[in-house]
Amino acid sequence: MLSLNVTEICKTRQIERPYTFLVKAGISPHTANDIVNGYSRAIRLDHIEKLCEILHCEPNDLLIYKPNNTNIIAENHPLNKLIPKQSDFDWQQTLKTLPLNQLKEVAKFINNPNEEKDIK
Questions:
Q1: In terms of CB atoms within 10 Å, which of 48, 94, 101, 109 comes out highest?
Q2: How far is CA 76 from CA 40, 81, 82, in A?
Q3: What pTM was computed for the model?
Q4: What is the pLDDT of residues 47-84, one digit of tens each?
Q5: Alpha-carbon distance values, 51 to 10, 25, 92, 100 (Å)
């Protein structure tokens, strides 16, 4: 089943009150409530566009796929790319504990994301 990943994106972006954030961005309170609580069974394209704009993401970031036992798809099916990877990675804590030289490398990457990097 496809569903929206807005709450997880908000958490990653450190948006503490996703509902309030969505309403302030122009999404109706009813729709914002449905999105945040996972009740959306249908979503308008203009809402997808608005979500992508305010969350600085693309539509594939908004959608997650959770397979169910009744509808089994092939392992190579494109929907499998939308299955969320289990990750409890705390990037904030990792940044706090990085040695200074590695933190400087991260800062260089963030400040120049299009520059060619020799990543090992």
A1: 48
A2: 27, 9, 12
A3: 0.69
A4: 999 999 999 999 999 999 888 888 788 889 988 888 88
A5: 11, 9, 24, 35
